[in-house]
Amino acid sequence: MEQEAQSFFDSAPPLRCRDDVVASVNRFLDIWKAASAIGQTRRIAIVTSGGTTVPLERRCVRVIDNFSSGSRGAASTEYFLASDYAVIFLHRRGSMQPFCRSLPDNPIQECLEPVDGSIRAREKWFDAVTRAVTGHHSAVLQKKLLKLEFTTLFEYLQILEIVGAAMKPVGRHAMFYFAAAVSDFYVPWNSMMEHKIQSDDGSMTMQLAPVPKMLGLLRKHWAPEAFCVSFKLETDVDILLKKARSSLCKYGMHAVVANELETRKNKVVVVTRKVEMVLEKGDCPDIELPLVNCLVARQTMYLQQQQA
Ligand code: PMT
User: How far is the CA of 254 from the centre of ligand 1 (A)?
Assistant: First the structure.
């Protein structure tokens, strides 16, 4: 598996913003280290969010995409921040953002209006706009939120490697929360067409390679002490828990969140080695509130085990 992952990285197109990503992750960690040095160790959640795309051509015109909106990751980020975590929000460009979930699709034109030569929020949207601006502003001001963007699978996995390896010193205080929908199959860069695929020849067949799973690498090499939570999404409820249990063992996760496509906004099952907890939205504003609370408590137990 490690060899497959290595050859994925070796053949991937170089990450254009690599230096910027490394610098911003290091700056974020420097703040964490400075706080830890004076006894104020904060936990860090790395929340992955949204779906990766798989390009079909090097000069890319077409991609394979998936349905993920990033709503789970954005909502969870808000709750981690509220639980006093610092958050690295690794998200799909253009996907749902923390504190913006109540805004309409086109917020600038729908929520704002010109009044006497300046711009104001329309009354109907005032609360949502205030929440979006102040929530984000406060997290950034307190240096608790770092946003990193990806679009393609190549970008996502390369940034994940950078962040993963950087989290080693954070040890058990790091939580990886893999809510992103990561492509399972891709076209390797070295076998990808340079130019736009032509339609003149009628039907076509394309060979996709399996994407190497990186969760094992993260557990074994990048950040072996971090608390790791992955997600399992299925459309067939009969196989969901079985698959979640299997990925718990296969990749050494501390918890796997099992969710079914149709009911994912109302119900999830947190699967751990010892217990399986069914969480429902109930009276909560959304399912991510009980979910994040549950995982924060599990990480507390994990930290206490170390101290015992
Ligand atoms: O964004 P929303 O619209 O709110 O939807 C949220 C969600 C349904 C996408 C989310 O709750 C969810 O289930 N995300 C994981 C979906 C998924 O890709 O499942 P999977 O079975 O393909 O992958 C299992 C886990 O392995 C995932 O945590 C994934 O991040 C990780 N993975 C997958 C492939 C890969 N090559 N490497 C990985 O690390």
Answer: 16
- Please identify which residue in the block is written with the tokens 């984000």: 136
Tens digits of residue pLDDT in 192-222: 999 999 988 788 899 999 999 899 999 999 9
Distance from first CA to last CA of the chain, Å, rounded?
34
pTM greater than 0.90:
yes
Pocket test for ligand 1, best of 48, 222, 232 (most atoms within 8 A of CB): 232
Q: How far is the CA of 98 from the centre of ligand 1 (A)?
A: 19
Query: What is the overall mean pLDDT for the chain?
Result: 96
Tokens of 26: 């290091």
